[in-house]
Amino acid sequence: MKRTLFLSFLVASATLVFAQSYPCISDYKIAIINNGGGNCPDTIIDGQLETPTGSVTLTFDSPVDPNNLPVIVSVTSLDSNKIVEGVSFGSGTLNNNGTVTYCYYFGPNNNNNLMGHHGQFRFNIGYYVNGILRPGCGEQIPLPVSLKSFTATRSSNIVNLRWTSASESNNFGYEVQRLIGTGTWQTVSFVTTQSVNGYSASEIAYSFTDQNPTRGVTQYRIKQVDIDQRARFSEIRAVRGLGQMAKTIVYPNPSISGNRVSVVFDEITGTRDASLIDLNGRVIKQWKNITNNNLQIENLLPGLYNLRVILRETGEQTIEKIVVDKN
Questions:
Q1: Exposure winner among 56, 92, 124, 185, fewest CB in 10 A?
Q2: Is the CATH number of domain 142-239 2.60.40.10?
Q3: What is d(CA 72, CA 89) in angstroms, rounded to the nearest whole number?
Q4: For residues 237 and 222, what is the distance between their CA atoms, to the nearest angstrom?
Q5: How far apart are CA 263 and CA 313, in angstroms?
Q6: Quick one: pLDDT at residue 5?
Q7: Which sequence spans correspond to the domains of the chain?
């Protein structure tokens, strides 16, 4: 059976939200019943008793919370790029090695299994947040604390950061962090909340000016810290280096397999759609309605890719080449 790494996708929302990191899938193993499929019970699906077809064991890129196991929302065949119909997954079981095993069931009119002609898959997962199942992984899953807006703009050798909270609850303040080039995240300042005792039902505007004469791309994020010291990160904003030309920037390029690739779009304001395409012309990833000036691409396998970006307002299309080397 062929294998492929799995990613889960979430369409970007217009509202900026703080997020914590939820484990993403890094590998998988499928077994059928009577061939190592495990102890999967019969179950009731749509009023009918169904016999298990097999099990799926997922490996994750970071430890899974035993009190909030990921849920398999759907599975996509990469051969046809379509959702596999008629399959249901049971709740997961956390194994001693940190993997999670799920029993899966096909309906009575479908005797296929995931070992058949569907040789490559993408499992789409989600997590329960405050009782609501939210698709996604990594830092994609939104939490109740939200920002109405967050911007970063360069003016000569300074960068102006502005953000507005829609409301605040149990908020201690905001840690301003930046990453220059391919370096590491550093804290440059802490902005204390303006709310009374950490609570506010109305909008509050914040700003910070960073002295930043670097000539490379700088990324910024806000780390919101609760009074009890729990923390969440905002989405990332990127600015060009001092004197950098106003063209699309991809970095690092070449990158290393599994590392993050960052894209900073040109300075034309608008809404963009982007597609990542391999050398066989297959669309690997897609993003719609991008209103930020930057894009993060993670967990790419070694190879050559084209990133096609279309500006909706004008229809203008640009192609950027991305090279991913082996570790």
A1: 185
A2: yes
A3: 7
A4: 9
A5: 20
A6: 37
A7: 16-135, 142-239, 249-325
Give the CATH fold of the 249-325 domain.
Immunoglobulin-like (2.60.40)
The yes-or-no answer to whether 142-239 and 249-325 have a common fold is yes
Per the rule left: phi > 0, alpha: psi between -120 and 50, beta: everything else, 210 is: beta
Q: Is pLDDT of 7 > 60?
A: no
User: Can you tell me the distance from the alpha carbon of 193 to that of 321, in angstroms, rounded to the nearest whole number?
Assistant: 42
* pTM tops 0.85, yes or no: no
| Sequence-ordered list of residues with C-beta below 8 angstroms from that of 134, at least 6 positions apart, any chain | 126, 127, 128, 141, 142
Residue 250 identity: V
Q: How far is CA 304 from CA 8, 230, 326, in A?
A: 21, 40, 11
Please tell me the predicted confidence (pLDDT) of residue 246: 66
Q: What angle do CA 271, 234, 321 make, to 5 degrees?
A: 50
